[in-house]
Design brief:
- By secondary structure, this protein is of the alpha+beta class.
- The protein has four domains: 155 residues, DNA ligase, ATP-dependent, N-terminal domain (DNA ligase i, domain 1, Orthogonal Bundle); 50 residues, no CATH class; 205 residues, DNA ligase/mRNA capping enzyme (D-amino Acid Aminotransferase, Chain A, domain 1, 2-Layer Sandwich), CATH 3.30.470; 147 residues, OB fold (Dihydrolipoamide Acetyltransferase, E2P) (Beta Barrel), CATH 2.40.50.140.
- The chain contains 21 helices and 21 strands.
- The strands form four sheets. Strands 12, 13, 14, 15, 16, 17, 18 and 21 form an eight-stranded mixed beta sheet that branches. Strands 3, 4, 5, 6, 7 and 8 form a six-stranded mixed beta sheet that branches.
- A hairpin with a 5-residue loop joins strand 3 and strand 4.
- Helix 4 packs across helix 8.
- The structure holds adenosine monophosphate (AMP).
Length: 598
């Protein structure tokens, strides 16, 4: 495939806001493709070179890309910088610069394969002299690029490709190209993706033998499985009702989810909820897991929480979050804030894939292969049949440092539903019944200039929830409370790569912030209640036409949900459920004054 064809498709994708139109463009783009170009195009379109879990980074900073643009267009760097400021992004700038230059038509047009290969070389350049190598490769590519190609090349290397193709839209397109476009076909493709987390594998299998060849995509140690997710219910009564009166309840540990892949030879790779590799953060787990899990290879899952080395008690989550990205001093961190992994599931044991077994069987397997110790233990679990038993268990979980309980179905069909949120698992956090005590995970889509003490920096942010049905991020609050100086100062560098010159098409809000951001950074907020709002767009029309939800008195909890991607934010549907459960409580206890917050 010519790279110009891909760039032309991106141009069209960028011009549309409609998911349906996007799908049509994607279908046209993918239909003629065959491996290996097919996989490359799938990765490139998502702004990646390899599946996300491999963590391949191009390592191209703004300044490096600017240098390459200057060299390729023979325009001084300062001038490139000035024009970029004017236009908004370096991609559009290089596009315009190339357009202004009358260049000879090349007899050596860029191909997808060629570009992909060069981008791989950029990613592979490491260590001394690597910057020069990266500049040279990028300069060469831009020297051969058409204006449109140049624009998307630069955006790709900077990680700011804005064509907005999400995995779910790609799965829709694949269903249309390689199956009959039906719902059952879509589900089958999605579940294969949930198990493998790699679109190329799915697409290649579909090309080879249609839906039937998806069956051979199984679990593989080292390739993360998309995590099973939990629903919520407003009371323990309703939790039990959902589970037909009998459930396994577990402590809900408040830490970081860890999916541990342990190879036969004892090599360990850890993945976060977002499928990023986190092995380097937890050397003690990498060391201890092969000893604690007796039957290898294995894929097990648990929650990692900090443990007080003196008292063996669970400590607040914030302490483990401080270890994220801390490359040096890990040894110190390890002794100061040691962690313990509480295992709650097993997907692979020995050569046997056990994820398809129902929960009672999986738990039995887990118990039989884990030798609990200092760093690796089993999540505390009990089977309950009454609300009283569940309530007592909840109290126990809270007292032990948990944030609530996880109720899990024991019924037929309670297999590990990879990548799916359903009522097989229901989370229930403390005090849920007395107002909106549950937190909300919101995506930053805008920033507001600060005043007074915060003059010259951001003072607040516009947060959005996510609506998977519409693939839109809809605002629900403006939050400025809860940030201390350090937390506020830490925001601009995090948000930098998501800066948007105008409202991104996937964002909906009746409020116009001083600065727009593409959805990327997820913050945890709490608030007093969800109210109906004419200016916010979250779950628009769910209760009344043209009315969305707003969070009243929002406060940042101090927790940046690093492990969550924008589409992992609280969904519109969850907001509706939270709103409804709030109303139910109010009618149940009409004499009560509004609950105290925090
Ligand atoms: P939330 O992040 O609030 O949506 O809650 C779901 C998360 O709770 C899961 O992704 C896990 O990281 C965590 N968790 C803690 N304890 C358990 C448990 N016993 N079973 C399943 N998930 C748990």
């Amino acid at each position: 495939m010519r790279f110009s064809e891909l760039a032309a498709a991106y141009e069209r994708l960028e011009a549309t806001k409609k998911r349906l139109e996007m799908r049509v463009i994607l279908v046209e783009m993918l239909r003629p493709l065959r491996p290996p170009d097919l996989g490359r195009v799938l990765y490139l379109s998502q702004g990646m070179l390899r599946p996300e879990y491999e963590g391949v980074e191009l390592g191209v900073a703004d300044s490096l890309a600017r240098k390459a643009v200057a060299l390729a267009t023979h325009v001084p760097e300062a001038e490139v910088a000035r024009r970029t400021k004017e236009v908004g992004d370096l991609g559009s700038t290089v596009g315009r610069l190339l357009e202004e230059q009358s260049r000879l038509a090349t007899d050596d047009p860029l191909t997808v394969a060629g570009v992909y290969h060069e981008l791989e070389a950029i990613a592979a350049a490491k260590g001394a002299g690597s910057q020069e190598v990266k500049v040279r490769i990028l300069t060469d590519l831009l020297g051969r690029a058409t204006p449109v190609e140049g624009k998307f090349l630069v955006r790709f290397v900077l990680g700011t490709l804005r064509v907005g193709v999400r995995e779910m839209t790609i799965l829709d397109a694949l269903t249309e190209v390689y199956a009959d476009g039906s719902k059952p076909a879509r589900l089958r493709i999605e579940s294969a993706f949930n198990l493998s987390s790699d679109l190329r594998l799915i697409a290649d299998a579909l090309v080879e033998g249609g839906l039937a060849s998806l069956d051979r995509i199984g679990l593989e140690v080292g390739r993360p499985v998309r995590p099973m997710l939990a629903e919520r219910e407003p009371s323990l009564d309703e939790v039990l009702k959902r589970m037909d009166g009998r459930a396994a309840v577990e402590y809900k540990y408040d830490g970081l989810r860890v999916q541990a892949h342990i190879a036969r030879d004892g090599t360990v790779r850890l993945f976060s909820r977002r499928l990023e590799e986190t092995s380097a953060q937890f050397p003690e787990l990498v060391r201890d897991l092969p000893k604690a899990v007796t039957h290898l290879p294995a894929i097990v899952e648990g929650e990692c929480v900090p443990i007080d080395p003196e008292t063996d008690e669970i400590r607040p989550f914030q302490e483990v979050s401080r270890r994220r990205g801390r490359k040096h001093d890990l040894e110190k961190a390890e002794s100061e804030i040691p962690v313990c992994l509480f295992l709650f599931d097993v997907l692979l044991s020995g050569e046997t894939a056990v994820w398809e077994k129902d929960l009672p069987d999986r738990r039995a397997v887990l118990a039989s292969i884990v030798r609990p110790g200092e760093r690796v233990r089993l999540a505390t679990q009990r089977v309950v049949t009454t609300t009283e038993e569940a309530t007592a268990f909840l109290d126990e979980a809270i007292a032990a440092g948990g944030e609530g309980l996880m109720a899990k179905s024991l019924a037929v069909g309670s297999s590990y539903h990879a990548g799916a949120r359903g009522f097989w698992w229901i989370k229930y956090k403390r005090d849920y019944t007395v107002g909106l005590t549950d937190s909300i995970d919101g995506v930053v889509v805008g920033g507001f200039q600060g005043r007074g003490r915060r003059a010259g920096q951001y003072g607040a942010f516009l947060l959005a929830s996510y609506d998977p049905a519409k693939d839109r991020f809809e605002s629900f609050c403006k939050v400025g409370t809860g940030f201390d100086d350090a937390a506020m100062a830490a925001m601009p560098p995090r948000l930098h790569r998501f800066l948007a010159p105008e409202k991104p098409p996937e964002v909906e809000s009746g409020i116009v912030p001083d600065q727009w951001f593409r959805p990327g950074v997820v913050l945890e907020v709490r608030g007093a209640e969800l109210t109906l709002s004419p200016v916010h767009r979250a779950a628009l029309g769910a209760i009344r036409p043209e009315v969305g939800f707003a969070l009243r008195f929002p406060r940042f909890t101090g927790r940046i949900r690093e492990e969550k991607g924008p589409t992992d934010a609280t969904t519109a549907l969850e907001l509706v459920e939270m709103y409804r459960s709030q109303v139910r409580q109010a009618t149940a206890e009409p004499a009560e004054s509004p609950p105290e917050k925090e």
